[in-house]
């Protein structure tokens, strides 16, 4: 569960505050999305490892989280694509 603090911190920074400008909000949101995507994949993989064989059966929901983590990366953007997008936003600023 080492991956949990990063999305919590990034998510806290992504919420709008009076000090935010229109330029910093997309970068904060992209950072939070990247951290959450990576954390979901890591936690789901650790859950499969922790629960062993039962985690990939219909008796336990862990396989659904694992499939959701990897399916979201294919349907939306992979962490690598999110990182490239974030790098370009930061370099343009």
From TrEMBL:
Keyword presence, Chloroplast? no
Its domain of life reads: Bacteria
Enumerate composition-biased segments (Low complexity).
Answer: 13-28
Pfam families for this protein: Acyl-CoA_dh_1
What is the protein named? Answer: Acyl-CoA dehydrogenase
Q: Which residues form the Acyl-CoA dehydrogenase/oxidase C-terminal domain?
A: 21-70
Q: Where is this region: Disordered?
A: 1-28
GO MF term set: oxidoreductase activity, acting on the CH-CH group of donors
Q: Which Gene3D superfamilies match?
A: Butyryl-CoA Dehydrogenase, subunit A, domain 3
- Provide the alphabetized UniProt keywords: Flavoprotein
Q: Which InterPro entries match?
A: AcylCo_DH-like_C (IPR036250), AcylCo_DH/oxidase_C (IPR009075)
